[in-house]
Amino acid sequence: QAGxxxxxxKTEVQQLLNLxxxxxxxxxxxxxxELISNASDAVDKLRFRSQTxxxxxxxxxxxxxxxxVDPEARTLTVSDNGIGMTREEVMDNxxxxxxxxxxxxxxxxxxxxxxxALAPELIGxxxxxxxxxxxxxxxxxxxxxxxxxDTAVRWTSRGDGAFTVxxxxxxxxxxxxxxxxxxxxxxxxxxxxxxxxxxIVRKHSDFVAYLITMMVERDEPIPEQEQIKDKDGKPIGGxxxxxxxxxxxxxxxxxxxxNKNDVSTEEYNExxxxxxxxxNDPLAHLHVxxxxxxxxxxxxxxxxxxxxxxxxxxxxxxxxxxxKRVFIMDDCRExxxxxxxxxxxxxxxxxxxxxVSREILQQDRLVRNIRKNLVKKVLDLLKGLDDTRYDxxxxxxxxxxxxxxxxxxxxxxxxxxLIQFKxxxxxxxxxxxxxxxxxxxxxxxxxxxxTGENLTMLMNSPHLExxxxxxxxxxxxxxxxxxxVVQSLTEYDGKKLKSAEKGDLKLGEGDDEKTDVFNxxxxxxxxxxxxxxxxxxxxxxxxxxxxCLSGDAQDMSAYMEKLLKAxxx
Length: 569
Ligand code: ADP
Ligand code: MG
Prior knowledge:
Number of strands: 20
Distance between the termini: 50 Å
Bound molecules: adenosine-5'-diphosphate, magnesium ion
Low-confidence stretches: none
Number of helices: 17
Radius of gyration: 31 Å
Strand content: 15-25%
């Protein structure tokens, strides 16, 4: 346990570190936000644990995050008295990457390499917060002691392939992260300057719920009787002296508890980054305060970019639950449905019991009401976005939102207003169902769609020939989830949704005569293909092509069949 061990970083971590170290950051300051956010998380965890195990706090009950700078040594230290880590936890948490996402991460890393300019933004999506210390530090040391343990451990690395782990001395629980700063370049902030640190904390971490303090030098007036005076009574050596005092850097104001008018866009954005670990600004936010029977306040955000693990089942959800500004839990799945899992934010419900468990939450009427309420508000927010922002949203999260049509019957109509598709006539633009219906031809009664893997394939499908000839617009559905959409959404605005590739299109062009003429021929073809096809019929789909394969009205679409085969179904 005591010996000093040297370990190699996992390949993907080292790749990431190289990126961090070699990228040009437009804003290096954010490393401090990441370290403070880790410290704050660590205190959250300890406080949560102390609810069932009050002993664990000992007499160290004032939670605090301390920053210390040393200009001579060029170090900056962030300390917390949070939960700390055992040696095993250090090995597990520092030196690896979000265990669930390694493969996806590597894929994204390739993308980063291709478009290096975007690296900082992309990196921000992987929860690599701790490693951002290497943006400004040539060496990072972490000394930590887990709550309830009497041994500490020191982790240290220069980000050059290896790190060491050894036993250490630390009198109290918690974690110190010590950065040995790189030599300052012309354009850099000097992170050993008090005012620099103060400004960054105020800008990025003001709302952190724990005291963030720094020891600073102040000029203090020397009391009259302690002043040394000459024989004429004039003070010698000045009337002030330097003292070191602990200064609080943050206001700790819960931003969601403020009035909307008192919060600037920049503050909203900073809070989002704090919550989400995303380095990009959010696309939109929703700030509600509801009073009455269901009392709560909420500050929710729609990210501008989908995280790489949006479709991983074990992925954390983005809602934190508070009660009167006291953190209760994160990843609160009870507050928004699965299909809104990309929403980040905070919900504060003053009437909730502080010690609620997840099991109880599921049954809780208040929680159910809040959820119902929030879903409507989020869907309204999305509906109110201008087209450009909505399209950005839809590119990123459309496939997830569409899951709602299948799972949230109560909001089906709202969701139907929000979904959109490219069509045979829209070229690169998305069309909402409302606009599709408004543009229907006078003799058109149904909404046509076709599902498949990609737009080009669908555009050229022989199934669409007859519809194109009549200038009927067809929705082109290329998301796997669309197969479920059309099963749940069978009608919109009184018009049936109809597959362009299945059954009879009933476009009313003398199909009957055609059938008579061709009956004999069809009989012969059918006898040849007997074991492969159900029937041979005149098609209402075709114009130029001679024949195509087609499903019965109630059959699966060709794409659905393919999807099921691919998933082993
Ligand atoms: P994230 O915060 O998104 O989990 P980080 O890279 O910032 O990712 O941190 C990785 C992990 O290291 C954290 O999840 C936590 O377990 C651990 N950790 C980092 N800083 C601290 C700290 N100050 N106290 C306790 N644990 C920490
Ligand atoms: Mg972090």
